[in-house]
What does this fold into?
Amino acid sequence: MTLHDYLDFVKQRNGHEPEFLQAVDEVIQSVYPVLERHAEYRKLKLFERMTEPERLISFRVNWIDDKGEVQVNRGYRVQMNSAIGPYKGGLRFHPSVNQSVLKFLAFEQIFKNALTGVPMGGGKGGSDFDPKGKSENEIMRFCHAFMGELARHIDHRTDVPAGDIGVGGREIGYLFGAYKKFKNEFSGVLTGKGIGWGGSLIRTEATGYGLIYFAENMLQAAGTSIHGKTCLVSGSGNVSQYAIEKILHLGGKAVTASDSNGFIYDPAGITEEKLEFIKDLKNNRRGRIKEYADKYKTATYQDTPPGADSNPLWAIKADCAFPCATQNEVGAEDCNRMVRNGVKLLAEGANMPTTPEGINILIDNGVMYAPGKASNAGGVATSGLEMTQNYMGTNWSSGEVDEKLQHIMRNIHEISLAAAKEYGKPGNYMVGANIAGFVKVAKAMQAQGVI
Ligand code: NDP
Ligand code: 2IT
It folds into this structure.
């Protein structure tokens, strides 16, 4: 089969799933040379099998809002691949959630989880439920209703969900409570749990911290470091908050944050105090990032019109860029501007935030580029550490978990570079991460037969 044949195979079966096709396209472009070299992988149709979910569950979620009206939402769990461990991946609650979005996320998760070195297969789930503007009771009722169905399909040795957009510590609590009640069982069936009831220290921080550890590895490989660098960060949720925190710890300066309405630019830098304001604003008060500029006069706020081709956040002069909000938030024009402005590194905190055209522009112009499946793997890796602690019935200190996280990110950096070099693309983290993740899963599927 040619590269085109593989793409056609997936297109024919998933024609109406643009995000899924985008994720598959990137991976097949990277791993085609592996398939050329390995007749046994081709014969076993490993790539074709990896693009077909092992199981895709879609279900109705009914709940009653505060006005007493019945609401109907759609819930999903995509159990994509279990060759190297139980299905593992987050739950996303956002109105944009559909089958295509969750299949792209579950597909990415297969390779990301393989890169971590922790035994976890790939999965993802969620709902088109919009948490915005909902009361605390509505959130709780929705989470309980959602788990009412999901509980039949998961187990701590089978499928272990966690958070993603719209699902944080609060939602994990309600989901866990429902699972425990329905199954009459206290187990590590979810990660991102609270400290004191099975959660791991550093899981909350892990994705953002891991992202900056990964970027620091890239910069050190190029003979420099994040110290003194000006950084653009998008989003203001879990990943962004802890990316900004780690940039600060390592002596860099984060100057932006955003949400679905707009972004703030603070040339003076986001300090520890200002970051605490963002955490309180987004995690407790659930307000808009605009309030940051109302409070801190060093900052300006700008609206970002929905559906625009480019975002002026990426036109700000800086050294490093960390998109941490959502898919396809960085387009070709944004990347052209970053190249013109001398941005040296872009590492993805979000999943698939850069469009394929954008990635090509970055790579062709020598910008160091890290794909999310490598650079944001610290979150799921630490979820894996939470699972291990749950299985062992123990709790590690934050120092221990942080050390393991740093080690994992360093290892992902090394194996990605090694795979890129082996396949004639030295320094290409995208190709390297895709190949290293793919080969690990391919070997496991080969060993387990056609099943
Ligand atoms: P949160 O829900 O905590 O925060 C999401 C942030 O992105 C918010 O600031 C939100 O704005 C903004 N956002 C969401 N959707 C859009 C949109 N369509 N357009 C513009 N802004 C948007 O999510 P996380 O921080 O957990 O996740 C962010 C990204 O990181 C996602 O791509 C996720 O898949 C990825 N990721 C998350 C991991 C984790 O451990 N949580 C692990 C690895 C990757 P607003 O405040 O207005 O809603
Ligand atoms: O995209 C991701 O890796 C996550 N949302 C985290 C998944 C997890 O199981 O911790």
Q: What stands out?
A: The radius of gyration is 21 Å. Residues 206-375 form a domain with the Rossmann fold fold (CATH 3.40.50.720). Residues 398-422 form the longest helix (25 residues).
